[in-house]
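Students often ask why we bother encoding 3D structure as a string. The short answer is that it lets us treat folding as translation between two languages. Here is a chain of 245 residues written in the first language.
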Amino acid sequence: MKLDNLLDIPDPDARLYRVFSKSRFLELVRTGKNALVKPKLWDDPFENFFLQSEVEDSSGQKISIAGLAEDWYGQCWTLNEDTDAMWRIYSHGKDGIKVRTTIRKLFDSFYDDTDTFASLKYLIGKVQYRKEAEIADFMASTSFTDIAFGGQATGFARLLCVKREAFDHEREVRLLFQDTNPKRSTGKAVLFDFDVNAICDEVMVDPRLDDAGVSSLTAEIKAAGCTVPVLQSPLYRVPKFTLRL
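And here it is in the second language, the structure alphabet:
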């Protein structure tokens, strides 16, 4: 069942956010294609602790799982509505564009019900943040067979949804795809249909932009074909208070 591929997600209707670069967002609107990339391309080198592991058989022979690692693709979203860190990390030139959707809408648009093996390929999971020692203890006490038990993809996907607790402020949710045969990837990324106007409920531009910058970027977004309301993040908006005498 599709709901079985929602990992550690108590509320499928929770709001979800992602900041795209301007060029990537405009391309997304124009082409209607969203790219998931290999986890090895994610910023934190520790992200791949599982896919970089080796399997040791009963004779002590080392077995690489590099082939399995090549089959996985992902994209990171967040439950954080609006944070200073989000804009500073993902909107270096103050031209990042944040979209809002829900877990359900994103996953429904991604999951292919017509695919016989969809349950093995399409997953979404809330990231669990653990101490590095906890991760090491888990890897020392489990086996590849434990993770792969039953032939399901959820064991592997859950490990791709583990990060060190130093990153817990990110509150990530990860969209994951296992590219089993027939392969659909052409290399480092795999593309999926993504209709911004149907999936996104709101589009927001950087809070640090001046009025002219907001107008210019909004015009570019609309010219690309986006009909979703475009707002500016109110994060740095100065409130006006009135004091009594």
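Translate back mentally: Residues 211-223 form the longest helix (13 residues). Keep this in mind for the problem set.
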